[in-house]
Amino acid sequence: MKLDLNTLSLKELKDLQSQVAKAISGYEDRRKREALAELEEKAKAMGFSLSELTGVTTGRKRSPSVAKYANPANAADTWSGRGRKPRWFSEALAKGKKPDDMAI
User: Fold this and answer.
1) For the CA atoms of 89, 90, 95, 100, what is the dihedral angle to 10 degrees?
2) Category of 59 on φ-ψ map: left (φ > 0), alpha (ψ -120 to 50) or beta
3) Same domain, 81 and 45
4) Residue 2 has what DSSP assignment?
5) 83 — alpha (psi -120 to 50), left (phi > 0) or beta?
6) pLDDT digits (tens, 9 = 90+) for 63-95
7) Where does the chain have alpha helices with state H?
8) How many Å apart are CA 103 and CA 70, to the nearest integer?
9) pLDDT for position 60
10) Could you tell me if residue 28 is inside a domain?
11) Residue 61 lies in a domain
12) Which of 8, 35, 48, 88 can bridge 71 by disulfide, Cβ–Cβ 3.0-4.6 Å?
């Protein structure tokens, strides 16, 4: 396949660039999956799982954080104390409430 890039418009060139980037990414992902499958097969043939040999567990699920604070106006609106402060929490602090007043 031979393309004359000089005859393509800027939009066509950018579309082609996008398609090439997607194709490269897809190729790399496919090769990684093939390598992983091959390694898992080899480990299985030797009586192990790949996660046993590498010490890496896959699919680890995190449990949600426990709520520590509740909105005084709506108790269903909670916050764990992690991450960005919710607006209701900041507004309550500005009105003179203390975090302990909103603790669950």
Assistant:
1) 50
2) left
3) no
4) -
5) left
6) 888 999 999 888 889 999 999 999 999 999 999
7) 10-45, 50-54, 87-94, 99-102
8) 6
9) 63
10) yes
11) no
12) 88
